[in-house]
Amino acid sequence: MTETASRPTLEAVAARAGVSRATASRVVNGGDGVREPLVERVRRAVEELGYVPNQAARSLVTRRHDAVAVVIAEPETRVFADPFFALQLRGISKELTAHDSQLVLLLTEGRDDHVRVGRYLAGGHVDGALVFSLHLDDPLPGLIHGAGVPTVFGGRPGWGHGARNSVPSVYVDCDNRGGAREAVRHLVGLGRTRIAHITGALDQTSAVDRLDGFRDVMVDGDPALVAEGDFTPAGGERAMRELLERRPDVDAVFAANDLSASGALRVLRERGRRVPDDVAVIGFDDMLPIAEQTDPPLTSVRQDIEEMGRLMARLLLRRLDRGTGEESLGGDPSSVVLPTTLVRRASA
């Protein structure tokens, strides 16, 4: 007997439960109108027989696919090298798994990928989308909006004019600006006066917000003490070299993330600068695999990355349960901004 032939059928479930096939189908596929005693009998029969519902049939009844697309607007090389994405995906996966929903990962590296992702979402394969690491010129929000897919964004969206006003902007983020202010105030409190900032990629709102937080404290700061990075270790190294060339007297650095800070630490060590004696260094994210293993261990602004992923998934699932229209949502759904905390270690 083949595996397919031995698989229990819906007819077998109905016979075991003593109900019609139509009743068994309504229970298995999430339909309404079945009395609770019959529901319990069908569920017991499903468990006893090990019946697995046909997803296509279930979708016809529920109009749900129990699948969510997670769209990361970055190339594979970045996604799989940066632990930030692993933490956020872990949070998303845990929440989706708890609600018996599948995660479909979609990455974008170029315009062809944007078209492919937009086409896939418009094809009705998933119930909704979670999108993060957007860049300001990214066409994904418009494509997703055109596909009519309920969406929650990771990070504050950066559009504020034109056609993108029609794109819903439910999002989960951390207090990037406030966290940056706390980091720089800590450096000022240490008596540092020549405080530099290594930015993230400035086509992303998180980097802009952290730069703004730095400037909130360093109101009259020297522009030469700001160097552009890109959230990567290599970008941190490059920016740190630029800073030392322009201002060799720098005595503190606030980096836009831990990866950038790790690159800055390497350059400072190469140049014989002691951390924190000569130059104090603070990062952002507090990703433990990095912050605890740098030399010295890195003071960092902590954001709960995994919790952000969970909240993104939770917001989307709530939208799906209530429906996707404005009225069914009870008005404009709330975005979430999580607080940050400065975690002090040996680098500052």
Automatic annotation (TrEMBL):
Q: Please list the residue ranges annotated as the HTH lacI-type domain.
A: 8-62
The keyword Chaperone is annotated on this UniProt entry: no
CDD domains reported for this sequence:
HTH_LacI, PBP1_LacI_sugar_binding-like
Keyword field contains Transcription = yes
Signal peptide range equals none
What GO MF annotations does this protein's record show?
DNA-binding transcription factor activity; transcription cis-regulatory region binding
Q: Which Gene3D superfamilies match?
A: 3.40.50.2300, lambda repressor-like DNA-binding domains (1.10.260.40)
**What keywords is this UniProt entry annotated with?**
DNA-binding, Transcription, Transcription regulation
SMART domains per record = HTH_LACI (SM00354)
Q: Record's InterPro entries?
A: HTH_LacI, LacI/GalR-like_sensor, Lambda_DNA-bd_dom_sf, Peripla_BP_I
Q: What is this protein called?
A: LacI family DNA-binding transcriptional regulator
Species of origin reads Streptomyces sp. R35
